[in-house]
Amino acid sequence: PDDGEESVDPIVAATERVVREFCVGESVSHELLKACSRAARQPLLREVLRQLVKDENRHAAFGWLFLDWAAPQLDTRSQARVRRSARLAVTKIDRIIRSLDSAPREVISPVGMIGAMGRDAYVACGRRAIEVGVLERLDRFGLAPA
After folding, report:
1. Total-model pTM
2. What span, in angstroms and rounded, lies between the C-alpha atoms of 9 and 139?
3. N or C: which end of the chain has fewer CB within 10 A?
């Protein structure tokens, strides 16, 4: 840590990172890719997306398994740190998803991920993934951001 930075327990630091990258990022990515793979009409795109779904599923699963192990070890202060980290990650992803609402339709390729299912359905899926796939699961650990 820097001179002005407090020392953080390695388990807490790892939990913050895992929650950001795996529980939030990979879980949302998994749900979006899964929906896109179902909607894809082009066989090559559909198969590529299916392979990505498998990969993202493993990453997301790792995050939740890690949290099963780490969460019981967190004290109140550590839980607050992890909740802050989760809030920042969720806010960042939500901002990206919401930015699609104002993106011109012509910039969304009909053969890409978003175009495969349509912008509105993609945004709705992303919001649902955050609410159900991330926030509700984090809440089970007492780690959902306020």
Report:
1. 0.89
2. 22
3. C
